[in-house]
Design goal:
351 residues; two-stranded antiparallel ribbon
Amino acid sequence: TNVVVLGTDGGRRKGARPLTIYDVAALKSQVPSISDAAPFIADNGRVVWNSKNASGRIYGITPALVKMLGFPVLKGRFFTDEEVERRARVVVIGQELRNELFGAEDPIGKKILIKNQPMIVIGVTKQIAFKGYLGYVERGMMMPITLVQERFIASNSPFGLKVNMIFMSAKPDSSVEEVTFQVTNLMRQRHLIQAQDDFFVGTSQQALDIFNNIALGLTVLLGFTAAISLVVGGINIMNIMLVSVTERTREIGIRMAVGARPRDILMQFLVESMVLSVIGGAIGVLLGVLGSVSLTLAINAVSSGRDWPIIVSQAAAIGSLVFSAAVGIGFGFYPAWRASRLDPIDALRYE
């Protein structure tokens, strides 16, 4: 969350200027609140190895961006600053792309063709849970940005070599708000902006906030649906218990006649209602676990290279059973109370 992203937004006004490598240099030297700035460029492309070919994303990056975002390496390594300087023909591929091209074979050291350009695979990235602005990293081909600008993506402009985005990390004693303010002012000066900006400045926290808002909306929706289900289920339990009290009126009278107190009758039917709801809750938890496992296995089977974990929360399962018991007690109280208030004489005469 200490990363600030600068991107192009040229569609907002006529004569918009692109971001360039000169902007990267200016940010490094003129924004005191950032520790580093890393350019980023991307495009689609096809990759070939032996008789296999696949589509993926070409990413031109630097080791600074790798360090900034903490890219995890499954196998091999990332390229160095020296390899960026000399435009080394090396590539780090995503795990899904690796599985599609190489299967179980070790890809390290293999020569592949990306847009008919020979490249040597030096590493494979792990799956990344939250990719933010980067997109589909699992099908990515990460290469030195200097090579990508020279061989793969047309980057020339009157203002210098273009980049898609610039990632910046805030210093430990600086906030992302401070970085955003300074970057915005500098870019307005460099791009001679007097009205609408031709760029945007975003943070990872903004992306997380959007994700959290979506998750909150889904939670509320699912919670509302579950609440309706619980009310309907509770009413069914109440009806079942009322029918049970009616059918067992004579039994209740006999129990009272031989010494059962009203609270004994109340407890009997409350326990029955609770057991009934807990059994239903246990069946629901079991179906939920089986459904989660089946759905996850199906997703992993149809999406090549993915291995989504199956996580079943014990706390959620136990909480579901406890809540089921509470629903049984809540909706079973009225039938149990009604049973405990029966007159023994009238109950014994009931047929």
